[in-house]
Amino acid sequence: MKLSPLELDALSEVFNHGVGQAAFALSELAGEEVQLSAPKIEELSKRSITEHLSAQGGDRICAVRQGFSGVINTDALLMFPVDQSLQLVQLMVGDEFPLAQLSEMEQESLAEIGNILLNSVVSSVADMLQIEFEGTLPQVELGQVGHLLDSEQGLEDLILSLQIDFSIDSRQIKGYLVFLLDVASSEMLQHKIATFIETME
Question: Is the pTM higher than 0.70?
Answer without folding.
Answer: yes
